[in-house]
Amino acid sequence: MHNCKRTKNALIDLACGEIADAQARELMAELNDCATCHAEHAAITKALRASSQALQSAAPTEEFWQGYHRRLEATLHNAHKDRLSDVEHTPISSRFRGALSAITRSSVPVPVPAALAVLVLFSVLSFALLSRGQSNVARPVPRVIVETRTVQVPVIQEKVITQVVYVEKKIRRNRTVGSQDYANPNTANVAASRSVANGKKPFSLVGFKPTEQVNLTIIKGNDEK
Amino acid sequence: MSSENELIRLAQAGDRDAFCLLAEAYERRIYSLAFHYCRDQQDAEDLSQEVWLKAYSAVSSFRFESSFYTWLRKIAINCFLNYRRGRASHFQSRDRVADAGEDRPNDQTLDSWETSLHNQLVIERVMQALSDVTPQQRLVFLLKHQEGLTYEEISKSLGCSVGTVKKSVARTIAKLRDRLGANEQAESYISCAATGILN
């Protein structure tokens, strides 16, 4: 749907060549259908053509250009002489400062991939150097202080097994008599001689040595026998 | 192009003659731009020579990232903007570099530029239309239609928005159409300009 107002807004862009080819073709097709817009476009184009031709035609003659170039050369010559005299009268220190500032302000165009590669390499190297430096740093060794302490450790008490032995009354009596003397070996011998005198085999622990090694003999038998 | 680059390198090394050869190649374009901008021959000459002096002192900073003329045009635009800001003080106090009055175009040579009455009429009306707009609008129009820059490039060069550039161009075209007699009479003027000036 053609809209004259919208088309008129785009006509200057069209005349200035600021519209893409496809859009320009569409716009030109619209102009062919609308006489008002077509006349507007023609007026703009003609005004622009006239102005560009007028600007071109307002150029000076060749004689002017010769004189102009001579004057320009003279101007540049004077500027060159001024520059040389400035350089001659400038002290060495300020020249050095100027050169130094020129170096600090100067830049070198580097392709982006190369700059990125250098940046990555630099960061990797600096990271590696930093991590290496950290590992080489001597860590402070803590002073060892030897201190002796007496610590009471609770020990588990040995288990005492009490065995009850039932003997006959006589023997028990004899034992109670004899047991008073068991603590003394001499009295033990006296008790033994007494039991021999009574016609019984004497009970004595003389010559008994508790063994450290216990040999167990297991006798297997049949319960039915 | 390679010879131009060689000349630029020689100029960067301090060869004044090499720079003069570069100036010879572009002096007409710079002068024309300055003339249409300030609409005065004397001011145009001063302004264009100012551009060349700045270019001469800054040629060592040219890095071959753009064409030499693009770089030169940037300097010219800056000079034009400064000219607009300090026109009164700057140009009155400035010393005239060369006293070569006999080389300047006089009325007779000016007449020789505009050979027919029709052409003169069209030129005058175009110049009047350009005088009616502001210096920035005029510069925008010249950069667009004389230098062929895009809206984007002009906006970057002048530090303004693309919308401002579009408005400036539209306003200047409106003035041109107004001065050239709008739709009815423009046809006859333009046909005169097209036939008379170009031949």
Characterization of this structure:
The complex is a heterodimer of chains A (225) and B (199). Helix content of chain A is 63%, strand content 0%. Chain A contains 8 helices and no strands. Among the domains of chain A are: 4-57; 166-202. The longest helix of chain A has 28 residues, at 62-89. With 225 residues, chain A is an all-alpha fold. Chain B has 199 residues and is mostly helical. Chain B folds into 2 domains: 1-104, Rna Polymerase Sigma Factor, Chain: A; 106-199, Orthogonal Bundle (Arc Repressor Mutant, subunit A). Chain B contains 11 helices and no strands. Chain B has helices at residues 2-12, 16-38, 41-58, 68-85, 87-93, 107-113, 117-132, 135-145, 151-158, 162-179, 182-197.
What is the total domain count of chain B?
2
Instruction: Indicate the overall shape of chain A.
Output: elongated
Indicate the radius of gyration of chain A in whole angstroms: 64 Å
CATH-defined topology of the largest domain in chain B: Rna Polymerase Sigma Factor, Chain: A
Give the N-to-C terminal Cα separation of chain A: 128 Å
- Helix content class of chain B: over 70%
CATH architecture verdict of the largest domain in chain B: Orthogonal Bundle
Q: Strand-and-helix sequence of chain B, N→C?
A: HHHHHHHHHHH
Estimated share of beta-strand residues of chain B: under 5%
Structural class of chain B: mainly alpha
Category by helix and strand content of chain A: mainly alpha
